[in-house]
Design the sequence.
């Protein structure tokens, strides 16, 4: 199928031909492809009718292997979001209502955007044997018996671009974590005479001679744009570090270093500049994660009163840890009356006896509820 919302049908039609024996397992197919969702209200990067995504499909001999693979990929997505996107996420289990159709269990990672709404940033599904039975995918085990395989599927998409923008950026443009920034450092030389130009170019040659391989950088020496225009241009593009150097800086063997994330501007000696920049890039990466995590931690609330919840979900908003009885009727009512949804049941959730926020029935743990994109 060329137009499809996901590729299980395509993959499993082929798995029937590819899988015959336990020696063929486990089998992993990973691909990047465009898929189509019939979205009626599109939102750039978050909900579009066609988007690029990465999707994986695996087949295993045992249920245990399939569950291990599902959780392994969830961990991969969690580490990618936190270590590269600098996006703190809550990893958890989706409710039956939110579960992927045909899956035994759906796991997800949920991030909080700057407006305190939730964004599902990735999912990993344990499909059990449902697709194997639907497509009659069997393997001969070591004893010669025919058995259905166990399956997983998982994916992330260009929605991560939206997550990156909404987590870190500001009214001046993009703010990119150094680990993902295609350009980490931009150098803007400032001169007004040919003599200054020669002196600055000579200083730049010696200053940057050992930068290759340490970080990505560009010297913006275009002469048809003023320095202020260049500053604004690179700020919009989210380059983590801007370095300015003019005639007086050359005389004093220094540069001006500007951080995109904070706007902090400092003079710095050219001595050991490469090491300083490398350290600063790491600091910026860590600071972006900490800032996003601090925002989330300040806006996670415990709530046991439904009437109060209905007020708080709009103002101040955020993530709410509430008790839920596990019944679909309460989940539907929550969404109908507040437009909020149960985002997930967090992994390693502490057991805590309480009463369902909506019906008052017994509950053994809290779930995370929020308004979401």
Sequence:
């Amino acid at each position: 199928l060329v137009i499809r919302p996901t590729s299980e049908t395509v993959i499993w039609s082929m798995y029937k031909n590819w899988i015959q024996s336990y020696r063929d397992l486990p089998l992993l197919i990973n691909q990047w492809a465009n898929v189509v969702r019939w979205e009626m209200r599109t939102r750039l990067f978050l909900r579009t009718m066609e988007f690029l995504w990465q999707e994986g499909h695996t087949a295993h001999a045992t249920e245990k292997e399939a569950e291990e693979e599902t959780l392994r990929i969830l961990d991969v997505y969690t580490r990618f979001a936190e270590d590269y996107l600098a996006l703190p996420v809550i990893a958890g289990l989706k409710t039956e209502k939110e579960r992927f159709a045909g899956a035994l269990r759906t796991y997800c990672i949920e991030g909080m955007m700057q407006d305190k709404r939730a964004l599902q940033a990735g999912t990993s599904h344990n499909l059990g044997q449902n697709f194997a039975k639907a497509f009659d995918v069997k393997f001969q085990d070591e004893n010669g018996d025919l058995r259905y395989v166990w399956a997983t599927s998982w994916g992330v998409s260009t929605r991560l671009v939206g997550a990156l923008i909404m987590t870190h950026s500001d009214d001046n443009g993009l703010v990119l974590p150094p680990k993902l920034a295609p350009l980490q450092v931009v150098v803007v030389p400032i001169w007004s005479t040919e003599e200054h130009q020669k002196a600055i170019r000579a200083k730049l040659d010696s200053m940057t001679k050992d930068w290759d391989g340490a970080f990505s950088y560009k010297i913006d020496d275009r002469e048809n744009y003023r320095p202020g225009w260049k500053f604004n241009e690179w700020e919009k593009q989210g380059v983590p570090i801007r370095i300015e150097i003019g005639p007086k800086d050359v005389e004093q063997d220094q540069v001006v270093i500007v951080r995109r994330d904070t706007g902090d501007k400092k003079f710095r000696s050219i001595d050991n500049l490469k090491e300083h920049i490398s350290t600063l890039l790491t600091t910026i990466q860590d600071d972006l994660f900490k800032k996003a995590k601090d925002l989330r931690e300040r806006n996670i609330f415990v709530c046991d009163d439904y009437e109060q919840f209905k007020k708080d979900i709009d103002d101040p908003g955020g993530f709410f840890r509430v008790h839920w009885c596990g019944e679909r009727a309460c989940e539907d009512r929550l969404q109908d009356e507040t437009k909020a949804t149960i985002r997930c049941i967090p992994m390693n959730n502490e057991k805590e006896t309480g009463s369902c926020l909506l019906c008052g029935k017994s509950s053994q743990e809290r779930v995370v509820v929020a308004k979401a994109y």
The chain has a mean pLDDT of 97. The longest helix spans residues 273-298.
